[in-house]
Amino acid sequence: MTAELARECVRYAQMGWMRGTSGNLSVVLQRDPLRLAVTVSGVDKGEITAEDSVVIDADGNAVDSPKVPSAEAALHARIARVAGAGAVVHVHALAPVVAAEHWPGGVVLRDLEMLKGFGRRDHEEVVIPVVRNSQDMTELGDAFEKGFDPGVPALLVARHGVYVWGDDLMQARHRLECLEWLLRFKVETRDIFTGRHA
């Protein structure tokens, strides 16, 4: 499982979504008590290895390890608990951050075929929630839980990044890739649909 985390990190780093040491991934190991494997803090995700992960508890604390989990580990655990996710992916792709800047009340997506890859029908209206950035994971977790919609497996954190989750890392990856496309489309066509011109 930890090797899978490393492989996914390298993939996202190559896409430019985990620049520097940013971003983190997690996968649920067990539910009761909740345990997740999460990538450690401060490691270049393009060079990460299977050794660069740590098991955390429901509060985001390392379990029987001196390794330091990602600063956002507690939010991963909160999402896993509330949403029932099996894996959580957090990256710093640009399109989600720009979209959150334009639509801080939530990003509305509709009538786009790629919504099917995000687990929705193309004609459905989907609102991706946006929360204000904070270094306090309890505050972020409360904001996530307040706006949580079981049908929307994603969260945008303003001026920070995006969280996407699924039953496993593969489903989370597919949802993330589709959501990034959807948000890029939304941003790049913004002037067309608002009647503005550059």
UniProtKB/TrEMBL annotation:
Keywords: Amino-acid biosynthesis, Lyase, Metal-binding, Methionine biosynthesis, Zinc. SMART domains: Aldolase_II (SM01007). The keyword Acetylation does not apply. One of its GO terms (biological process) is L-methionine salvage from methylthioadenosine. Catalyzes the dehydration of methylthioribulose-1-phosphate (MTRu-1-P) into 2,3-diketo-5-methylthiopentyl-1-phosphate (DK-MTP-1-P). This is Methylthioribulose-1-phosphate dehydratase. HAMAP family: Salvage_MtnB (MF_01677). Its cofactor is Zn(2+). It catalyses: 5-(methylsulfanyl)-D-ribulose 1-phosphate = 5-methylsulfanyl-2,3-dioxopentyl phosphate + H2O. GO terms for molecular function: methylthioribulose 1-phosphate dehydratase activity; zinc ion binding. Pfam families: Aldolase_II (PF00596). It comes from Lentzea fradiae. Belongs to the aldolase class II family. MtnB subfamily. SUPFAM superfamilies: AraD/HMP-PK domain-like. Its EC number is 4.2.1.109. InterPro entries: Aldolase_II/adducin_N (IPR001303), Aldolase_II/adducin_N_sf (IPR036409), MethylthioRu-1-P_deHdtase_MtnB (IPR017714). Residues 3-187 form the Class II aldolase/adducin N-terminal domain. Pathway: Amino-acid biosynthesis; L-methionine biosynthesis via salvage pathway; L-methionine from S-methyl-5-thio-alpha-D-ribose 1-phosphate: step 2/6.
